[in-house]
Specification:
mainly beta; 3-stranded antiparallel sheet; 1 helix; 12 strands; globular
Length: 166
């Protein structure tokens, strides 16, 4: 049996985190909102790869290190092609929307505020097939985030409007 050490990650762990990301996801480079970042230098991040069903969550410790959030490695029911983060249910916690190649809607994982995520829930609506890419925006200017997906198989866009501000 292999000994396993469970502990918070710190600044000294940055190199192996970078090696892990490079090995499993091919790069430590993240491009979001038109800027490039290197995941092992960020205060916290969520990562996945479209060839794998694993979602990894690492949270900032506030001192330049990381710790694995509660349920830090999440096995998804299918591969995610994109990740968008925002407060969907307006509880002050970061939630994730995942674009996938299967189903008729994106998956949502609601945040618990302590670095953990709830189980993935599919938003099933007959509005497009294979919602591979998801983004969040307040489309109707009601103060709440809405979901937009680009649907791979049906070749269209779908908008999932929130129910308005809290």
């Amino acid at each position: 049996m292999t000994d396993i050490e469970i502990r918070p990650l710190d600044v000294a762990d940055r190199n192996w985190v970078a090696e892990f990301l490079d090995k499993h996801w091919g790069s430590t480079r993240i491009v979001t909102r038109g800027k490039a970042y290197y995941a092992h230098l960020l205060p916290g991040f969520v990562a996945t790869h479209d060839d794998d069903t694993l979602l990894a969550v690492l949270i900032s410790d506030g001192a330049g290190g990381y710790y694995a959030g509660k349920g830090a490695l999440i096995e998804l029911p299918e591969r995610a092609w994109s990740i968008a983060g925002g407060d969907l249910d307006r509880d002050g916690r970061c939630d994730l929307v995942l674009g996938t190649h299967g189903g008729n809607g994106p998956m949502i994982l609601f945040g618990d505020g302590a670095g953990g995520l709830g189980p993935p829930k599919r938003v099933e609506r007959p509005v497009g097939r294979a919602p591979g890419y998801a983004v969040l925006a307040d489309l109707d200017l009601d103060g709440a985030l809405d979901i937009v997906t680009a649907n791979f198989e049906s070749g269209d866009l779908a908008a999932y409007l929130s129910r308005g501000a809290k």
